[in-house]
Amino acid sequence: MKTLNTETILGGIDPDIQSRLLSRRDLFARSTVALGALASAPLILAATASEVFAQGLPQEIMDTLNFALTLEHIEDAYYRTGLGTDGLIPAEYLGVFNHIGLHEAHHVAFLESVLGSAAVARPEADFTAGGKYPDVFSNFDTFLTLSQTFEDLGVAAYKGQATNLMANDDILTAALQIHSVEARHAAEVRRIGGKPAWDGAFDEPMSKEDVLAAAMPFLKA
Amino acid sequence: MTNITKSLSDQTSARPSRRNVVTWTAAGIAGAAVFGSLPNFGMAQEMTATLGDGDVGVLNYAYALEQLEAAFYKKVIEAPYADMSAEEKTILTDIRDHEIAHADFLKTALADKAIGDLEVDFSAVDFTSRDAVLTTAVTFEDLGVAAYNGAGKLLTTPDYLVAAGKIVSVEGRHAATIRDLLNPLSVSFAGPDVVDDNGLDRALPPADVLAAAGPFVKTAINADGL
């Protein structure tokens, strides 16, 4: 099994997060670790409704939501960096990318609010993928290519995880509601790139392993 | 109170009744009663399409919507509006083919449980008008997205949920694309009219979707089992 050895940039500002991350070896074991920490601190747990809500979720759902949150963190960081880089995104596309970035930030906040204290930390990203895309934030074509990659990947990832959420109707529905927004993003980004907005009549799902393999190069080792 | 708590309670309170009975307008039923005199693509049609129970009911519900979409785009491509650009024709032809593929897929999955061919009514749509065609297309695509999003939780068979997922994101791509044709490079592709402050697309219960689709369908649809 692949492991993600990621530092957390939030660690510097939230001491709780560091203490919860007993292991950095496996990003997707973090929710387990966090849950253990929560179980020993029932008073803290009751602090907000969302944390109480998260406590009652089956592990499979927590893990799946943390997997989704990790992908949303990557997208969120990607657009924040791109939008914060003067001259990268041509003026005529700024409105679109601002809007996409806003949604990704909303998705992060939404998933974090569902997971409460069990939410994984923001991974540290390397959008050059170890030097493979050195001009990602200086060449709009590269930025656009990776934007499409992340959006299509998000669509395939949510689709591949839907069956793991069937035990909770509200969470399944929310995940589907994010899934179709990612599809809207993917279509718009593809159009800006002069490409068809779809690959055919059916979008294929991807397994967690395949999504991780695609996302791993963009996470700092 | 966080957004999620509010959102989830809203969704819970909005949970659809499992005994949705949707019938079309009296005029629609009267129209269906005389369907023999109307163009019907040469196919046998039913007075009432009964979707059925459980997963079959949900798949038939999806099949009904895909039939509606496929019929719409067939008309669009058969008689393109005057100023249809080459790009628009490519897009709308692709979408037509996708909707036909979706309908065929669902019909095959349903086998002998599939509802018959719906009789549609696009008399309110001016197919010579780009704006009317694209605006109606957006209505159908957004409705399709909201319908699949709302129906996912009604499915009990994981394979069907995956299949629905393979369709709904393509509907989302359609919706964004046609919205972009109408309002290029604006936020419309995922506008605030369909995506809320949590970044969530719409999810509608079958009763709401069928009510919205009602004016375009003459066949009565019995969604009692959903």
3D architecture notes:
The complex is a heterodimer of chains A (221) and B (226). Chain A is 59% helix and 0% strand. Chain A is an all-alpha fold and 221 residues long. In chain A, helix 6 (91-115) runs antiparallel to helix 8 (169-192). The longest helix of chain A has 25 residues, at 59-83. Chain A is globular. Chain A starts with 14 loop residues before the first helix and ends in a 6-residue tail after the last helix. The model of chain A is unreliable at 1-52 (pLDDT under 50). Chain B has seven helices and two strands, in the order ααβαααααβ. Chain B has helices spanning 3-13, 26-33, 54-78, 86-110, 130-151, 158-182, 206-213, and strands spanning 48-50, 220-222. In chain B, helix 3 runs antiparallel to helix 4, helix 3 (54-78) packs antiparallel against helix 5 and helix 4 (86-110) runs antiparallel to helix 6. The longest helix of chain B is centred in the first third of the chain and has 25 residues, at 54-78.
* Order of helical and strand elements of chain B: HHEHHHHHE
The helix content of chain B is 40-55%
> Which segments of chain B are poorly predicted (pLDDT under 50) over 5 or more consecutive residues?
1-42
Structural Rg of chain B: 17 Å
Share in helix of chain A: 55-70%
Helix and strand content put the structural class of chain B at: mainly alpha
Instruction: Please give the count of helices of chain A.
Output: 9
Largest interface: A-B, 55 and 55 residues
Distance between the termini of chain B: 32 Å
Class by alpha and beta content of chain A = mainly alpha
Shape of chain B: globular
Q: Could you report the average pLDDT of chain B, rounded to the nearest whole number?
A: 86
Subunit organisation of the chains: heterodimer
What value does the average pLDDT of chain A take?
A: 82
What general outline of chain A do the C-alpha atoms trace?
globular
